[in-house]
């Protein structure tokens, strides 16, 4: 029997995928190095953004686990109302917050947090301790313009590290002092870190989109006493 190159290639890929799913409890998800693969963009007013595209690869199973509400240890997703400045607003997305010392819902998230803590320790001076998870079910889920200014971040510089899973969504940032927004399309496995004065001097948002969009989960790692 003759095989074309493509058929032979396809079956080899099938076997490789099945083998990795079978052998590896993470389903083949991997964190790449940080180091010099992280690119910094300096914004105005002492704010900056670091981006590391594709930091996490092969994370389809991780996404499915975080989205699955029936499995043991499932993420306790809840609808959110949030105090923003002087108002309480409806936030159309699901959230879950893992405080310091609460085990994260997947060992890969613990690995990610620890890798971020190690990479940023010289500059940040403290580890990332908490994880906020957000679930944007489709393009009509979003988060309005805000800074993460609850706690020390109201007055102090800090870092918020976001790992994005699932469908790509835009994370937009704009200076509070006025001026153009900057936009990042955050796709599967991308890392974005907001640093310096970013929470105080800039705002960020995940805008709604009319384009058909699959679900996205974002994981935000923060330091102690920062929301
Ligand atoms: O989903 C994101 O990437 C951003 C979430 C966010 O800004 C927040 O929860 O404070
Ligand atoms: Fe935020």
From TrEMBL:
An example molecular function term from Gene Ontology annotations: dioxygenase activity
Domain Fe2OG dioxygenase stretches: 127-225
Domain of life: Bacteria
Pfam families reported for this sequence: 2OG-FeII_Oxy_2
InterPro entries, per database record: AlkB-like, AlkB-like_sf, ALKBH3, Oxoglu/Fe-dep_dioxygenase_dom
Keywords recorded for this protein, A-Z: Dioxygenase, Oxidoreductase
Protein name, entry field: Alpha-ketoglutarate-dependent dioxygenase AlkB
PROSITE patterns: FE2OG_OXY
Gene Ontology process terms (BP): DNA alkylation repair
PANTHER family noted in UniProt: ALPHA-KETOGLUTARATE-DEPENDENT DIOXYGENASE ALKB HOMOLOG 3 (PTHR31212:SF4)
């Amino acid at each position: 029997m003759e095989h074309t190159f493509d058929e032979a290639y396809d079956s080899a890929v099938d076997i490789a995928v099945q083998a990795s799913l079978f052998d590896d409890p993470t389903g083949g998800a991997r964190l790449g190095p940080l180091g010099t693969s992280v690119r910094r963009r300096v914004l105005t007013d002492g704010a900056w953004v670091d981006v590391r595209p594709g930091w996490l690869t092969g994370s389809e199973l991780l996404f499915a686990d975080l989205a699955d509400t029936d499995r043991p240890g499932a993420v306790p997703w809840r609808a959110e109302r949030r105090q923003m400045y002087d108002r309480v607003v409806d936030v159309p997305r699901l959230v879950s917050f893992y405080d310091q010392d609460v085990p994260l819902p997947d060992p890969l998230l613990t690995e990610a947090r620890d890798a971020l803590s190690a990479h940023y320790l010289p500059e940040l001076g403290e580890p990332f301790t908490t994880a906020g998870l957000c679930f944007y079910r489709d393009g009509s889920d979003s988060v309005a313009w805000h800074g993460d200014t609850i706690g020390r971040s109201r007055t102090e510089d800090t870092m918020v590290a976001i790992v994005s899973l699932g469908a790509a969504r835009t994370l937009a940032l704009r200076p509070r002092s006025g001026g153009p927004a900057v936009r990042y399309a955050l796709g599967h496995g991308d890392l974005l870190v907001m640093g310096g004065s970013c929470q105080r001097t800039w705002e960020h948002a995940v805008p709604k989109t009319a384009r058909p969009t699959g679900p996205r989960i974002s994981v935000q790692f923060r330091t102690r006493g920062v929301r």
